[in-house]
Amino acid sequence: MADFWLTLACSFLVRYDPWINGLFLRVEHLPGVKEFATAIKAPEVNVGGFALALLVLIFSRVTRFHDRISDIFKIRARFDRANILLPLAVMSGAQMSARQVANLKRDRHPLVRATFYKYASSRSEHPLVDKHDIESALEAWHILGCLGVALHTHRLRGLIRLRQGSLVSDHFLDRLDGRASIYASSVWIAGTKGGSPDPTDSRECRGKCRQPPSIHRGGHLMWYKIGKDIIVRSENAAKPETQSSAYLKKLISRLEPIHSSFDFGCGKLRYERAIAKTTGELALVDSEVQLSRGQMICGRSTTIRDYVGKSNHVHALTVGQFASHDRRYDRGFCINVLSVIPSASVRLGIVQLMRAKLKPNGTCLFVTLYRNSDFTRMQNLPNCQPYGNGFLMDSLRGHSFYGLIPPDDLAGLVKRAGFSVESIVLDEGSAYLWARTPDGRPGPINFEIRETAENFQIRSQPSVSNRSSAR
Question: Which of 118, 147, 174 finishes a domain?
């Protein structure tokens, strides 16, 4: 049964790869598969993995697959000589010559049957060794063989994927950062009831990607409902500190020290340490769910609030808290947040709010993904569908959204929110845009936060002084 359980466990792990998960979904949608799973009382989760594990079990037992692999690589032969026959000969007092050692290799089968299996065979009626110990040893040997085959298979799979260039898909998902949780925090920023076509769509996607008629927030703070059946789980995009960008860390480390900063959409604090070294005070902004849920943060299981709770200069704020307090900051960061938000109005509102929370002449770094060679292939997977300037991906963890924002579209979005663009640097498919707030022209500092049955909204409102001057 080791083959079955190891295959089932591996199937759960490999399905996190979108390409492999797409293959499993195809199998699970074949006619008769679900009926067969119901008939044999298979678990509803990972039906494809259960079927694969069952097939592997039958195949290995019928073909004696592990014995054949052992024969090909001479694993059992070396084990019998080195761990059974030679030790028995030495313990019997025999002085083994080179010719006798060669004879052990030649006559291995009859010698092992006569000297070992005669006393330690599970098929013997009266073995000298307890049958339970024999069966346990055989099972351990079988598991070791399964692990060896799995290791070589994993290496072969890696070489094939490297050859095909499909490793880019893993890198692509990793770089989409843990910043999506921001838009699920407590607001729909500058949104309207229902979605709107995305003005920042990639030119290649315009006219090709069907935009569902409505997009609204679902029942969980970290989820969004698109249409009738799709729930986008923003937490799927969160990545740990170990998957951070070396280029971005180097860029941050070269910044001049300032008094205050914020990281809007902090996710799993991938860049918190790097940013904290450049500022006297740091505000980490995300949803209440992301700030309070237990997760792995910088190598330990904790919550973001507990992780920064004892710090005097790092604070965790929800989007609502961030929008309502009067504090303004010298510098802001919005790292791979916009790329995973499936709504144009939310993107624009985020940038507007960030501008409002910066001091006059303050700076902000926006990072988005704009190019990926694997993007087209992933869009065509059976578990993906076009949406806006990206695509929705269905996996075991639920739906996720991944988009590309061209540098020109990112610059246009930032300008519409009231920023001026200082510079844009392109590196390995990511755009790094520095923006600056106008000197002496404060943006709106009041935001109306309203929750409805379908979505949250934040609408910027001019201050009293601005309304008076307008009159």
Answer: 118
Domain containing residue 93: 70-118
For residue 73, how many other CB atoms are within 10 A of its CB?
12
pLDDT, tens only, 103-147: 777 887 787 777 776 666 655 666 666 666 656 666 666 666 556
CA-closest candidate to residue 78, choices 111, 101, 105 = 105
Give the Cβ contact number of residue 421 at 10 Å: 16
**Could you tell me if 265 and 401 lie in one domain?**
yes
Q: Assign residue 361 a region (left: φ > 0; alpha: ψ between -120 and 50; beta: otherwise).
A: left
| Structural domain includes residue 261 | yes
DSSP E strand boundaries for 378-461: 384-387, 390-395, 398-403, 420-427, 430-436, 446-451, 456-461
State the amino acid at position 52 in one-letter form.
L
Does a structural domain hold residue 258?
yes
pTM: 0.55
Collect all residues with Cβ–Cβ distance below 8 Å to 285 and sequence separation of at least 6: 182, 185, 262, 263, 264, 265, 266, 317, 318, 319, 322
Does some domain include residue 146? Answer: no
- Domain count across the chain: 2
Task: Report pLDDT digits (tens) over 432-444.
Answer: 999 999 886 555 5
User: Residue 266 belongs to a domain with what CATH number?
Assistant: 3.40.50.150
**Of 118, 153, 178, which marks where a domain is finished?**
118
Could you tell me whether strands 223-226 and 215-217 are parallel, antiparallel, or unpaired per DSSP bridges?
Answer: antiparallel
In DSSP terms, 335 is beta-bridged to 367
Give the closest residue to 259 by CA, choosing from 280, 277, 278, 276. 280
